[in-house]
């Protein structure tokens, strides 16, 4: 019997640990917002890979509580452990693995403490009902069933400590930023922030010492970490990407870094699930511009109707850019795409015209480059230097990145897609010769516009593509409907839950002489069963 107890304890302990780490992974992906983790948990309880283990853990707890002292009860429990194996073995590979940051390590320690306290409570309540081995097994079964609840307690026990650590980190960053006193450039927008930041860094670095927030470090802690670890004493420019999920987020960041120049790349229906409506998104993005000093400079994309329609304070120096809007200060014209990239001309405020070449593809990249040209020109970088740096720009990985191969061409636009970027990517795909295919899971976080926007994208794909591969049956249903309504053959639509299967379908059906657009690649928490 002791041997059976030990085997049951070890096997259940391993299963519990794996499932708990998965919860921590989703919590980290959701930027440590426990409400979003709970939303993910509730949504995914309908999926087989979540529902069956959850029900199994309940059955196992009841089994051990009533029959854990019997031989047949222990054998049955061990057999039930075996039912977890398919879910553990077939776990989809992680696109972004769990990073064991100091915060995760502190949360793990808190979890161990909470589970230890729960064991003490179990002993006090049920000590007379069970012997030592059965008590251990019942306790493990209970905490396995209540994993999300125990993580909740652990998370909020650590909340004041994490808040204090974060404030200390930010205070240190503020002090360093004030001491070095670089000119701060803030960049925000519903999309295009990271690409624009990389372009601006490239255009300015030949003339100034520049520090920029890496990747998508656009939260208070991410920015503070950049300042504390990367900002050098001699840096003259600090480029700060600013992200938001709710009203007030950009205001907080603007108060933190005090930008003198603010850029809004575009405004659209991104993160509508948290912002709720477009008006809130607009107000949030313009918190950057409203937070600029009296001598501040706002650089705005006036082709975007939400930006152009906003009433700004009169004292602000506003510089505008665009492609379709004729009255802007910096306007791109005569745009052409090819296998080697893009060519276009820019009309400057004095109406002089200069030609530019870049390896980057897509209209949204032209907008991003325009923002960079406007800023660099304002900061006295000579036009010929700007032209040289634009030509040297390398595609940001997975953002309309052209990958030519011997038998086919891939356009990799798998990073954080949005409606406008999706449409621009389809326009680029349409300019390539031969057969055209797309692999996409569609767009997410669009609130009540999810169906309408994805449906319209489906109708656009029908006019351009020869083969469409959809990742995730539920989330791509609107695209499927749009394709079918537009008369696209069902035989040329593939629906799968795995990108690898999608690639196999494309290569098996088209073989060679085709161009494949990879549009968006959702984070792990959106993967369907």
3D architecture notes:
The longest helix is centred in the first third of the chain and has 34 residues, at 147-180. 52% of the residues lie in helices and 16% in strands. It has a 9-stranded mixed β-sheet, with helices on both faces. The chain is built from 21 helices and 15 strands. By secondary structure, the protein is an alpha/beta fold.
> If strands are numbered along the chain, what order do they take across the biggest sheet?
2-3-1-4-5-6-7-8-9
Largest sheet: 9 strands, mixed
| Percentage of residues assigned to helices | 40-55%
User: What separation lies between the terminal Cα atoms?
Assistant: 38 Å
pLDDT averaged over residues: 88
Structural class call reads alpha/beta
Rounded Rg: 27 Å
Number of strands: 15
Number of helices: 21
- Poorly predicted segments: none
Binned strand content: 15-25%
Q: Overall 3D geometry?
A: globular
């Amino acid at each position: 019997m002791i041997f059976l107890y030990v085997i049951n304890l070890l096997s259940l302990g391993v299963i519990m640990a794996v499932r708990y780490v998965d919860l921590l992974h989703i919590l980290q992906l959701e930027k440590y917002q426990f409400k979003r983790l709970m939303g993910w948990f509730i949504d995914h309880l309908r999926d087989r890979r979540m529902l069956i283990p959850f029900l199994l853990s309940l059955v196992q707890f009841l089994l051990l509580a009533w029959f854990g002292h019997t031989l047949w009860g222990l054998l049955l429990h061990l057999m039930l452990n075996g039912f977890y194996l398919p879910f553990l073995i077939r776990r989809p590979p992680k696109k972004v693995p769990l990073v064991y940051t100091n915060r995760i390590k502190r949360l793990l320690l808190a979890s161990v403490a909470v589970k230890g306290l729960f064991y003490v409570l179990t002993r006090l309540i049920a000590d007379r009902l069970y012997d030592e081995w059965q008590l251990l097994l019942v306790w493990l079964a209970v905490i396995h069933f209540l994993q999300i609840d125990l993580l909740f307690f652990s998370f909020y026990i650590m909340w004041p400590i994490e808040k204090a650590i974060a404030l200390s980190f930010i205070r240190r960053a503020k002090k360093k930023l004030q001491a070095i006193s670089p000119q701060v450039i803030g960049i925000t927008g519903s999309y295009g922030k990271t690409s624009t930041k990389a372009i601006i860094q490239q255009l300015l670095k030949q003339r100034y010492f520049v520090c920029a927030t890496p990747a998508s470090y656009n939260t208070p802690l991410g920015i503070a970490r950049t300042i504390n670890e990367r900002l050098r004493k001699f840096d003259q420019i600090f480029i700060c990407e600013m992200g938001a999920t709710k009203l007030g987020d950009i205001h907080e960041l603007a108060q933190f870094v005090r930008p003198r120049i603010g850029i809004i790349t575009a405004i659209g229906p991104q993160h509508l699930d948290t912002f709720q409506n477009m008006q809130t998104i607009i107000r949030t993005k313009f918190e950057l511009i409203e937070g600029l000093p009296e001598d501040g400079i706002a650089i705005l994309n006036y082709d975007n109707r939400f930006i152009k329609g906003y009433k700004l304070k009169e004292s602000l120096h506003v510089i505008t850019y665009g492609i379709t809007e004729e009255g802007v200060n910096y306007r791109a014209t005569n745009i052409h795409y090819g296998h080697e990239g893009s060519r276009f001309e820019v009309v400057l405020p004095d109406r002089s015209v200069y030609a530019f070449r870049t390896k980057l593809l897509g209209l949204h990249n032209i907008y991003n480059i325009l923002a960079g040209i406007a800023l660099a020109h304002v900061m006295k970088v000579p036009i010929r230097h700007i032209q040289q740096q634009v030509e040297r720009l390398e595609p940001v990985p997975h953002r309309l990145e052209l990958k030519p191969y011997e038998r086919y061409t891939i356009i990799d636009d798998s990073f954080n897609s949005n409606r406008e970027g999706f449409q621009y990517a389809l326009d680029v795909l349409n300019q390539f010769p031969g057969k055209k295919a797309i692999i996409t899971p569609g767009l997410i976080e669009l609130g009540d516009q999810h169906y309408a926007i994805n449906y319209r994208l489906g109708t656009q794909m029908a006019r351009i593509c020869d083969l469409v591969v959809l990742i995730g049956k539920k989330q791509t249903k609107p695209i499927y409907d749009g394709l079918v309504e537009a008369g696209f053959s069902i035989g040329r639509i593939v629906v799968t839950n795995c990108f690898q299967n999608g690639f196999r379908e494309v290569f098996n059906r088209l073989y060679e002489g085709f161009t494949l657009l990879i549009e968006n690649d959702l984070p792990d928490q959106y993967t369907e069963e």
